[in-house]
Specification:
The structure holds 2 protein chains of 2 kinds. By secondary structure, chain A is an alpha/beta fold. In chain A, about 25% of the residues lie in helices and about 25% in strands. Chain A is built from 6 helices and 7 strands; from the N terminus they run E-H-E-H-E-H-E-H-E-H-E-E-H. Chain A has helices at about 10-15, 35-45, 90-95, 110-115, 130-135, 175-180, and strands at about 5, 25-30, 60, 100, 120-125, 135-145, 150-165. In chain A, strands 2-3-4-5-7 form a 5-stranded mixed beta barrel. The longest helix of chain A has 12 residues, at about 35-45. The two termini of chain A are about 30 Å apart. Chain B is of the alpha/beta class. Chain B contains 8 helices and 10 strands. Chain B folds into 2 domains: about 1-20 and about 65-145, Dihydrodipicolinate Reductase, domain 2, CATH 3.30.360; about 150-275, 60s Ribosomal Protein L30, Chain: A. In chain B, the strands form 3 sheets. In chain B, strands 4-2-5-10 form a 4-stranded mixed beta sheet. Classes of the chains: A alpha/beta, B alpha/beta. Chains A and B meet through helix 5, strand 7 and helix 6 of A and helix 3 of B.
Chain lengths: ~180, ~280
């Protein structure tokens, strides 16, 4: 299948045009955030504070990279498992977040939020952190530096290979593809 | 008595932490290559090819295969004719981890208290198991355990009447529920028997074996073969995006148990099955 080139920020039109199974080469700015950063983002929203970056039309990548070796932009940076962010996701979708990159299942609440607000869930290849690092051209910590690998980073990526797993209609590639190959129930 | 300075143990642990993170095991590489030949899903096959490419880049640049460089699990078998000198053995092990993770640009993924959750910033402490054995050697095995797969692991106390079918079904159900989350293709470590802690420890220890290892016990070897077939028939495939390469291997360890019990533990490992051993 041909890979589709796409640039951030995402828009409602871009989100609606993509379907589960589409293979994407993503370029532009994306933001990293995982467990501890998500807790802080939601706490900030609950207190009525501004977020450290405007999530509207943006993409969050669930990743905690390894330290960059001298001369490198970033260390290994594959996706972490997404379900741990499930309870901390819908308020960000309500603020306009349009995409999430991770690996593994999302729950019905997140998928419901993606349908309501129009967002995409992408998978990157888990455990391919050295390969994925080649697509990262810039990396800068912009919030929660004390969280170390869990700090929020602003990344510039070029042709980051990802696949749409759950689209804005709720179609879920994990379910449709598994069913094609399953002979043991 | 043979005398061994604990600084030798520290140096071995430090080097193993780096090497296991940078260099894919030949067992895992062969399993990927077999998967590329046998995988029927086009997406699945493409993912396996990317994982081989990832391993090549990691080895050449000496960067981690995966950003989850794991919590370090150490199994030490110490010969009873060895006298350890030069300091505290547990401190030496943690010093090896600390230096390996700092010098090796590896991620520090350990928090000091499970509820307060402050990063220890040096990936210590390791999880260490000591065993005293005959002889005058020291065997050190390490497993760098990522938590995407650790989180999908389960232990259950079955009834004796559940038998081998009950064990099979629990293992397959565990992998099925895990689905795409633990970074398939996975390696499945199983412990059967003992007590709840013993079963779980055997499941972890099973992950220090090569993925293509088989049990010496005929009925357990047969169970390993049945399980890999059933698991690969679940359709999960590489990264959960469909296919018949869901597990690269199943390793089972067993131990005597109580007349009332049949403990079973399933410890799932991701495809980045990083394990090394050295004998001093």
């Amino acid at each position: 299948m041909a890979k589709i080139k796409m640039t951030t920020p995402l828009t409602e039109e871009k989100v609606k045009a993509l379907k589960a199974g589409d293979q994407i080469l993503l370029s532009g700015t994306i933001y990293t955030g995982r467990d501890a950063a998500h807790l802080r983002l939601i706490e900030a929203l609950n207190r009525g504070e501004e977020l450290p970056f405007d999530v509207e039309n943006q993409v969050i990548y669930y990743v905690g990279p390894t330290p960059a070796k001298p001369g490198e932009v970033i260390g290994s940076c594959g996706p972490t498992t997404s379900y741990r962010m499930d309870d901390l996701t819908v308020p960000l979708l309500a603020k306009g977040l349009k995409g999430m990159i991770g690996k593994g299942q999302r729950n019905a609440t997140v998928i419901g939020g993606m349908k309501t607000y129009g967002a995409l869930y992408f998978a990157a290849i888990g455990g391919a952190g050295a390969l994925i690092a080649n697509a990262v051209k810039k990396s800068e910590v912009i919030a929660y530096e004390e969280l170390g690998p869990e700090a929020i980073r602003k990344l510039e990526v070029e042709d980051l290979p990802i696949i749409v797993v759950i689209d804005s209609t709720g179609t879920n590639l994990y379910e449709t593809e598994r069913a094609k190959y399953a002979t043991e129930i | 008595m043979r005398t061994v300075d604990v600084s030798m143990i520290k140096e071995s642990i430090k080097q193993m932490c780096k090497d296991a993170n940078y260099f894919i095991g030949s067992d895992v590489k062969s399993a990927f290559e077999k998967g590329v030949k046998e995988e029927t899903s086009p997406i699945g096959k493409a993912i396996l090819i990317d994982l081989l490419e990832n391993a090549k880049i990691a080895g050449e640049k000496e960067v981690p295969i995966c950003q989850d460089t794991g919590m370090v699990v150490v199994f030490m078998e110490i010969g009873q004719e060895v006298s350890l000198v030069g300091g505290d053995i547990k401190e030496a092990i943690d010093a090896g981890i600390r230096e390996g993770y700092e010098e090796g640009y590896l991620r520090k993924s350990v928090v000091s208290d499970p509820l307060i959750r402050t990063n220890t910033k040096d990936n210590t402490p390791g999880i260490v198991y000591f065993d005293i054995v005959s002889g005058d050697k020291i065997k050190i095995k390490i497993a760098l355990k990522g938590f995407g797969s650790e989180n999908m692991s389960r232990t259950k106390m079955l009834k004796p009447s559940d038998g081998i079918k009950g064990v099979e079904d629990f293992v397959v159900e565990t992998v099925s529920l895990a689905g795409p989350n633990p970074c398939p293709p996975i390696v499945v470590g199983v412990g059967i028997g003992g007590t709840i802690d013993k079963a779980t420890l055997m499941a972890k220890h099973a992950l220090t074996k090569d993925v293509d290892a088989t049990s010496d016990l005929p009925h357990i070897k047969e169970l390993e073969e049945v399980l890999i077939k059933r698991i690969n028939a679940l359709g999960i495939g590489p990264q959960g995006l469909g296919g018949n390469t869901t597990a690269l291997g199943v390793n089972i360890e067993v131990f005597p148990t109580h007349i009332a019990g049949l403990p079973v533990a399933v410890n799932i490992n991701c495809h980045a099955s990083r394990h090394l051993e050295v004998i001093l």
